[in-house]
Amino acid sequence: MYKKIMESMYLLKTGRPSCQSYLLLSDEMNVLVDSGTKQHFKILEADLNEIGIKIDDLSLVINTHEHADHFGANKFLQKKVPIMTHRYAATKIVSADDEVLLCRAHGHDPQGYHVHIWLENMNVIDTGNWFLKIFHTPGHTSGSLCIYEPRKRFLISGDTVFAHGTISDISSSGSYGEYINSLARLNTMKIDLLLPGHGNISRNVEEDIEKAIENANKKHEKFLKDKNKN
Question: What confidence score (pLDDT) does residue 99 get?
């Protein structure tokens, strides 16, 4: 299932446990953000075909972090399309770090994944139609990133922040301290549209991020109390 969000941008939902993917089209480059799970690749491919895009028409795949529900289908893409993600995520993906990748939980073999371009904070990808700024937003995982388009003022947030201020669990490579700092940085940006990796898109972004910071602080306090009890 897919939905047109704005001119040349689509939301693709291939079903749980897969994440939501985003397709950004332009005259120069076509970018897919997150490929979803390996077992849902055929649904992703069918949605792309309905939009009028074949796998060979993709120029880049950007993964928002190192969990298999976001990069699993790369197995069918990586020989045809360059794969990009933050370098901390890339390290774990290419080394088949199963504990972090959660591959086996999603029925994936963690071996054999490749990342062609290892991103850093504040890298920019200019596709012609889109000016995509990479923000390293560790917390959920160490390699989490968000993609910001300053002219259209949207944020593709992966699993960093969701509508209504919902936040992700902390994975083995993440931390609450980093999470709170990442959310505080996002809270300084002008964002009109939040495009998360799961759930509803949101136009109440400032309110959502402030709520997410509040939620992260509460969870951090509970984590510390529980830790001190032990």
Answer: 67
Quick one: how many helices (H) and strands (E) in the chain? 6, 12
* DSSP per-residue codes, 95-117: TT-HHHHTTGGGT---TT---SE
Query: Which helix (H) or strand (E) is 21 found in, with range?
Result: strand 20-24
Helices (H), the chain: 41-51, 68-71, 87-94, 98-101, 176-186, 205-229
Cα 151 to Cα 156: distance, rounded to the nearest angstrom: 14
Is the whole-model pTM more than 0.85? yes
Rounded to whole angstroms, the Cα distance separating 218 from 2 reads 35
Beta bridge partners of 83: 61
Instruction: Report d(CA 57, CA 59) in Å as an integer.
Output: 6
pLDDT in tens, 142-158: 999 999 999 999 999 99
CB crowding 125-158: b at 16 or more within 10 Å, else e: bebebbebbbbbbbbbbbbbbbbbbeebebbbbb
The 10s digit of each residue's pLDDT in 166-191 is: 999 988 888 999 999 999 999 999 99
